[in-house]
Amino acid sequence: MGCALCGINRRGHGRQYTETAGWHAWQQPTQQQIKDRMYARRAARQAAAPTQYHARTAWMADNTGEDGIPYCADCGTEGCRQWMRTDTRLTKRRMELAGINPKRRSGAGWGGVESRPF
């Protein structure tokens, strides 16, 4: 429902100036303008690249015989903020399912206690 002359929404329009119409108040768009704008938005959505969620994990060999170093498999970096946020949420959930309070962790790793490693 943008202005028929400039396309700005009614709420924030006020008085606007355009080269073709000069100073003007908001005007109701025609049905054809509404339809054309709707089709243009749809075409832009379909042409856009798919969203990257950065949720896939891969493991980089650390050459020490340990498990490896996790990293974001979507962008290939260890410092991907979206992946780290997802990984932190999943780790917290895994700890809760294992009966460990994630807010009261002691030591390193999952639990830090030999008798209850998970």
Automatic annotation (TrEMBL):
The lineage of its organism: Bacteria, Bacillati, Actinomycetota, Actinomycetes, Kitasatosporales. Residues 99-118 are annotated as: Disordered. It comes from Streptomyces fradiae ATCC 10745 = DSM 40063. This is 4Fe-4S Wbl-type domain-containing protein. It comes from the Bacteria.
